[in-house]
Amino acid sequence: MAQLTLKNLGKSFDATDVIRDLSLDVADGELVCLLGPSGSGKSTVLRMVGGFETPNRGAILIDGEDVTRVPPEKRPTGMVFQSHALWSHMSVAGNVAFGLKLRGLPKTQIREKVGEALALVGLEGYGERRVWQLSGGQQQRVAIARALVLEPKILLLDEPFASLDQHLRERLREELRDIQRRLGITTLFVTHGQDEALALADRIVVLRGGEIEQVASPDRMYRAPQTRFVAGFIGSMNFLPCDMRGGVSDHPLFAVRATVPDGPVELAIRPEALTLLPARGTGARVHRVTDYGTHLLVDVDLPDGGRLKAMCPPSARYEPGQEVALEAGHVALFRGDAKLAEVTVERRVAVHV
């Protein structure tokens, strides 16, 4: 379909930099998720690609053609907004057909294309209904059909499922992914939901303060975060402060050996990388157990006053106040926002019952 290239984009509002020197290549047929907290600039990037905001610096290219100053209606892009942005006085078919009418297509061709677009999003036969007669999920399908019917080279989605309940969000994102793969359309998807990005994306771009923190596939983003911010933002992570002296950590429970300079560090350990064992003499005690059906999430109070989370199988049995030992298979070391190393952890204190 198309390749999208962002070159050194910069955008300021009232002398405040919202996007700082951002560059990104999105490959033909790729689905890339822009992920970040509120105010990170992800929606601003999307709006610049769609032509709804003009960058102060840099360039936007689609298939090598500079579209930086091209108005939205003349760009080969289709935009889907969080608010649906549908016209309530029009029928479903009227909403989907609106852009085609502006292009001056014959009525028979418009009718055919609208029917194909509605069938694509699972709304075949809904053309004569009014928008207000549809559920929120159906309205968002109409918005997607309206964007796709124009056969854009680039599909842009700005948190399209944020207002929907969790089960509907999950179903629609699966449908969207199927449609995107079937059409092979290059897609830029903005979300603040980590699960959504991990489920949808070929690659995830994590933004922070208008800059890219990391670009990676979902599995690499989760398993190998390159900064402390990404490690804490993607999924759940335990951060345990301690000091390194002579290549060994001084944490009371975990002996971490790594060739890093002496000084303060944080040990970063995923809950699923931790194993709990009944023990005496560790000073670590179960605080709370939450049963999620597929697994238990156990909060553990540490001797130094800290607390961590461990993921355990649903068959495990732990009670508040129970003393436990902890084992970890993998840990990353951070100093400030920089990753120093990734190592295997030895359990320092464990007197098993």
What does this structure look like?
There is one protein chain. The protein has eight helices and 23 strands. The radius of gyration is 25 Å and the shape is elongated. The N and C termini lie far apart (62 Å). Strand 1 (4-13) and strand 2 (16-26) form a beta hairpin. The chain is an alpha+beta fold and 353 residues long. Helix 2 packs parallel to helix 4. The chain has two domains: 4-228, P-loop containing nucleotide triphosphate hydrolases (Rossmann fold), CATH 3.40.50.300; 236-352, Beta Barrel (OB fold (Dihydrolipoamide Acetyltransferase, E2P)), CATH 2.40.50.140. The strands form five sheets. The chain has a six-stranded mixed beta sheet with strand order 6-7-8-3-9-10, sandwiched between helices. Strands 18-17-16-19-15-23 form a six-stranded antiparallel beta sheet, with no helix packed on it. 24% of the residues lie in helices and 36% in strands. Residues 347-353 have low confidence and may be disordered. It holds the Pfam family TOBE_2. It comes from Alloyangia pacifica. GO terms for molecular function: ATP binding; ATP hydrolysis activity; transmembrane transporter activity. One of its GO terms (biological process) is quaternary ammonium group transport. One of its GO terms (cellular component) is ATP-binding cassette (ABC) transporter complex.
